[in-house]
């Protein structure tokens, strides 16, 4: 293929259950678990969206994971609606190939969903080699001595590691050839380990390019810790702290919203949204930590679309801005000052709402309540005050 490809499709294989990577207390499939508040699958797709040469991306997902996938957000039309995979990776890839076949792409890249760190260099090298070869894949040389055993116990041979490499993805191919090879492979009684093996079996010429040792495939629970270290290694982080303060007066009503929880009371809080003084202070604290002003800048009270709006919307927006910067929320602390209503029994529910809204663990959220000993306007039960602090980690500017 001597001319530059007009279209490059990417098939992201995400149809597995990811059971080996599930921790004892986390049943979420590995491709939907988060690394620094971004799902593994989303990070994998983001790596290809960063390249203008990619024309379409098709996720192939498990039929039971539609709700998980719906929680991901992509603001790019190149990400096509997902298709359902099958019981094996090989069959799932074929479903993806069939789905993109009507668009007749020149090239196709086949990517494991659990490899979120495929670099532009590796992806670009795979694409470039397809000008001379039918297929290409990134590999890394083996550094450990490799032993062969027939029973998993007794060594029968030592392999020459100089001739061996570990395969990674994306694996790239000229579309028509790999589609034909997959169609033929589906009719034989053999399970191929990857798409390059199918290409080899079909007689296609497959080349290797240098892979990246950080291009790991998340397989086991401990791989998430390594993934976090890769991100932290790529971006030296710094800690920032923001504070927030908010006050709302009472008006006639029968309940107040505090920390995202509705609490019955003899009055309600006066304000444009749901007047959740705790979440307003918390939102301002997060925005302050990243230098993004205050809640009024992002959600002006003059804008009628926010009249009566749930303040969790404002909080999530602040959390998303942290994630967009490649940061993470370390911990949050809120103090609510009022004589009534009583807050203590509602604190666990508030922590749950806040942690779920921001995608962090509940133990990173602290909520405390106190009175002003009957002093001032809070002591006269004219309103409620909330103060908050937020600690976040973001990449250093330099």
TrEMBL record:
Kindly list the positions annotated as binding a divalent metal cation.
246, 248, 280
EC numbers: 2.7.7.60, 4.6.1.12
Q: Which reaction(s) are listed as its catalytic activity?
A: 2-C-methyl-D-erythritol 4-phosphate + CTP + H(+) = 4-CDP-2-C-methyl-D-erythritol + diphosphate; 4-CDP-2-C-methyl-D-erythritol 2-phosphate = 2-C-methyl-D-erythritol 2,4-cyclic diphosphate + CMP
Protein name per UniProt:
Bifunctional enzyme IspD/IspF
Q: Does the keyword Lipid biosynthesis apply?
A: no
Q: Which domain of life is it from?
A: Bacteria
UniProt-listed GO biological process terms:
isopentenyl diphosphate biosynthetic process, methylerythritol 4-phosphate pathway; terpenoid biosynthetic process
Q: Which organism is it from?
A: Devosia soli
Marked site positions, Positions MEP for the nucleophilic attack: 161, 217
What one GO molecular function would you report for this record? 2-C-methyl-D-erythritol 4-phosphate cytidylyltransferase activity
PANTHER family given in the database record: 2-C-METHYL-D-ERYTHRITOL 2,4-CYCLODIPHOSPHATE SYNTHASE, CHLOROPLASTIC
């Amino acid at each position: 293929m001597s001319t530059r490809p007009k279209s490059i499709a990417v098939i992201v294989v995400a149809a597995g259950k990811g059971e080996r990577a599930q921790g004892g207390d986390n049943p979420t499939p590995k491709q939907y678990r988060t690394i620094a508040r971004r799902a593994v699958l989303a990070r994998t797709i983001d790596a290809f969206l960063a390249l203008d040469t990619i024309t379409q991306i098709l996720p192939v997902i498990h039929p039971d994971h539609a709700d998980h996938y719906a929680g991901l957000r992509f603001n790019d039309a190149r990400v096509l609606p997902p298709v359902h995979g099958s019981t094996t990776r090989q069959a799932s890839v074929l479903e993806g190939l069939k789905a993109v076949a009507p668009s007749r792409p020149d090239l196709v890249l086949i990517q494991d969903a659990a490899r979120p760190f495929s670099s532009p260099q590796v992806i670009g090298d795979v694409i470039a080699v397809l000008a001379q070869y039918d297929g290409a894949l990134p590999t890394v040389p083996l550094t450990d001595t490799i032993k062969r055993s027939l029973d998993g116990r007794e060594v029968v041979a030592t392999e020459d590691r100089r001739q061996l490499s570990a395969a990674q993805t994306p694996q790239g191919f000229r579309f028509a050839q790999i589609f034909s090879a997959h169609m033929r492979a589906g009719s034989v009684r053999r399970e191929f380990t990857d798409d390059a093996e199918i290409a080899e079996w079909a007689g296609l010429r497959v080349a290797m390019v240098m892979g990246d040792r950080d291009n790991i495939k998340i397989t086991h629970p401990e791989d998430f810790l390594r993934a976090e270290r890769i991100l932290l290694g790529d971006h030296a982080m710094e800690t920032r702290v923001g504070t927030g303060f908010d006050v709302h007066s009472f008006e006639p009503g029968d309940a107040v919203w505090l920390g995202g929880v509705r609490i019955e009371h003899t009055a309600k809080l006066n304000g444009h949204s749901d007047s959740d003084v705790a979440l307003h202070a918390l939102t301002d604290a997060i925005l302050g930590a990243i230098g993004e002003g205050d809640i009024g800048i992002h959600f002006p009270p003059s804008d009628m679309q926010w009249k009566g709006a749930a303040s969790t919307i404002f909080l999530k927006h602040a959390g998303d801005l942290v994630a967009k910067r490649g940061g993470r929320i370390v911990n949050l602390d809120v103090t609510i000052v009022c004589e009534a209503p009583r807050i203590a029994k509602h604190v666990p529910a508030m922590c749950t709402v806040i942690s779920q809204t921001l995608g962090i663990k509940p133990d990173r959220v602290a909520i405390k309540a106190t009175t002003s000993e009957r002093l001032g306007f809070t002591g006269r039960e004219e309103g409620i005050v909330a103060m908050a602090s937020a600690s976040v980690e973001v990449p250093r500017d330099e």
